[in-house]
């Protein structure tokens, strides 16, 4: 686990610093993760994910004070535990083919849509909203990929998508489609 994390760090000084950080905190991290997950294997997985995540951004955080680094580790471990917990407790979803479609759109629904009106509405959006929509719809990227490309947070991507949807609906008279 440590070897994988060390490959993510370029500088020898940072590698030594990360190694010290890892050995100083691995037992604390495991105990904290086990307290949340109550499972040894899942706690080890959470620790591995957390230290891997910290190694990826260690260049940014290696100058934090000791107290801040410990707090950052605890937040990262907690988030990794919750992600694993949610993944483990996620109900299996049914196949899309097993679902019954109650409301199929009528044939004339598509005739009612004025594509020119929709195109004009998209053109009137801010550039950042148009970019997010293009990445999402045209390039079929995930919110994480869009956030990385645009240099914004995943939450901001979702906010932009919702804002764009509201503005488009306002511009085309969205109350007809609700």
Automatic annotation (TrEMBL):
<dbReference type="Pfam" id="PF04542">
    <property type="entry name" value="Sigma70_r2"/>
</dbReference>
<dbReference type="InterPro" id="IPR036388">
    <property type="entry name" value="WH-like_DNA-bd_sf"/>
</dbReference>
<dbReference type="GO" id="GO:0016987">
    <property type="term" value="F:sigma factor activity"/>
</dbReference>
<dbReference type="InterPro" id="IPR013249">
    <property type="entry name" value="RNA_pol_sigma70_r4_t2"/>
</dbReference>
<feature type="domain" description="RNA polymerase sigma factor 70 region 4 type 2">
    <location>
        <begin position="116"/>
        <end position="167"/>
    </location>
</feature>
<dbReference type="InterPro" id="IPR013325">
    <property type="entry name" value="RNA_pol_sigma_r2"/>
</dbReference>
<feature type="domain" description="RNA polymerase sigma-70 region 2">
    <location>
        <begin position="22"/>
        <end position="84"/>
    </location>
</feature>
<dbReference type="InterPro" id="IPR039425">
    <property type="entry name" value="RNA_pol_sigma-70-like"/>
</dbReference>
<keyword id="KW-0805">Transcription regulation</keyword>
<protein>
    <submittedName>
        <fullName>Sigma-70 family RNA polymerase sigma factor</fullName>
    </submittedName>
</protein>
<keyword id="KW-0804">Transcription</keyword>
<dbReference type="InterPro" id="IPR013324">
    <property type="entry name" value="RNA_pol_sigma_r3/r4-like"/>
</dbReference>
<dbReference type="Pfam" id="PF08281">
    <property type="entry name" value="Sigma70_r4_2"/>
</dbReference>
<keyword id="KW-0731">Sigma factor</keyword>
<dbReference type="InterPro" id="IPR007627">
    <property type="entry name" value="RNA_pol_sigma70_r2"/>
</dbReference>
<dbReference type="InterPro" id="IPR014284">
    <property type="entry name" value="RNA_pol_sigma-70_dom"/>
</dbReference>
<dbReference type="GO" id="GO:0003677">
    <property type="term" value="F:DNA binding"/>
</dbReference>
<dbReference type="GO" id="GO:0006352">
    <property type="term" value="P:DNA-templated transcription initiation"/>
</dbReference>
<comment type="similarity">
    <text>Belongs to the sigma-70 factor family. ECF subfamily.</text>
</comment>
